[in-house]
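Possible regression after last week's pipeline update?

I re-ran a chain I had predicted before the update to compare outputs. Posting the input and the new output here so someone can diff against the archived version. Not blocking, just want to make sure nothing changed silently.
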Amino acid sequence: MNDKPRKTAQDFTALVDAVRRVHDECAAAVNRTVNTTLTLRNWVIGFYIVEYEMRGTDRAKYGEGVITALADALVIRGIPRCDRRELYRYRLFHLAYPQIVEALSPLLPLDSEIVRAASGQSSSVKDGPDTPFPIVESVPPQLTLSGRKLVESLSFTHFVELIEIEDPLKRAFYEIECIRGNWSVRALKRQIATLYYERSGLSMDKEKLADMAHSDRPSYYYPVHPVHPCQFPCLKIGNEHGYTGWTG
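New output (post-update):
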């Protein structure tokens, strides 16, 4: 008599677990799609800004004030997250990561002419009177991750932190480590603030860094051994904060 209710309860629990599991998986997939689409949207906005700076027929009318004028116009039209500061970020994002054009066609359908223009734009963008903003130094080819991998692995909030890093080698290091370690944005900020790149010693080993960038080997295959924190006394960090594996 007791077997049937117990069996029914077990089946119902399995049903609940199955529904919860499919919900969680689909919700995660939706979040990934939203994050990816937002990243691509911001990159394309950056593309449009740079393209206008290069070829806009009336660009001389706005000069260095083009982003301010654009932000004002977009606010009036109710376009979210397009204030002056964000537009500067989108422009910088586009220039720092030209390879993201690879991810446009399958993930964000656009006119093929736009994709072709974006593909060739990075090679033609140069500092000069027609481009009033500084150009981001590019990452060496051997350290460049594919646009698809970057977009699928990092959120735009990650990119906001990364584009602030002027040294392309240092930026590449944090891209690689962020993806390998599945870092949150908070973890990325913490590692940058505690000079993880400088402590790792990999700034002197570009070959190893390039191998890390394009290898499918697990993260433990490339242990990073930070130098002793005493070499960076301004950080005031040590073993009491849980740092281990010091060398020297």
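Follow-up from reviewer: compared with the archived run. The longest helix spans residues 3-55. Marking as no regression found.
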